[in-house]
Amino acid sequence: MVEPKGREPIRRNARSNRARILATARQELGRNPDVTLEEIARAAGVVRRTLFGHFPGRAALVEALTEEASQALWAAVAGQAEPAKTPAHELARFVLSIWPVGDRYRLLLALIHQDLGAQRVSEVLGPARDEATAILDRGQREGVFPAHLPSAVLGAGLEALIVSLLECVNVGMWEDDGTGAAVAALVAAGVPTEQARQVVEAVTSDLGREAC
Questions:
Q1: Alpha-carbon torsion 32, 35, 40, 43, what sign?
Q2: 76-94: per-residue pLDDT in tens?
Q3: CA gap 169, 83 in Å, rounded
Q4: CA angle centred on 16, ends 13 and 19, rounded to 5°
């Protein structure tokens, strides 16, 4: 069966509307977690019926943003190259890779308790948690990171640190491109401060060359 010629433009328009609504929701929810769907629709330049056609309620919209964030985080983790020359370099690269995702979706931090359950949060963060634990485990085996805590526990502490730093950005207390967070993570993992700075500088330079 041949579809009507007008069907594809309609579909493209629907995809465009959905993407615009999600982008607007990220921005508006970041400014005000209590913003209404009607306000998001107006900011996105669509009528209320169009928004509800894609997202029948707030829960559906937040879930779509969560899934978008989950895919972006998975891509950042899966995009890691071969292990770096030291676990410290690998941890720095990991933080620098995931920071842009956290920065883009940091609005979800304000919605965790309000809209997302602990299980859903664990699903989203699972790949990143596994990767961080593996890096820390390698570092402890090689003596780069102290083994005073199990790698999974140390990873949970670093996760809390990164989330706290993102919250500071969210409320305007701090600005960072990921380098400060990477240094903080290395120091918290047991790397001396000056060495941590040197490692992050080296990894940032390497990532810049890879992007060229």
A1: negative
A2: 888 666 667 899 999 999 9
A3: 29
A4: 150
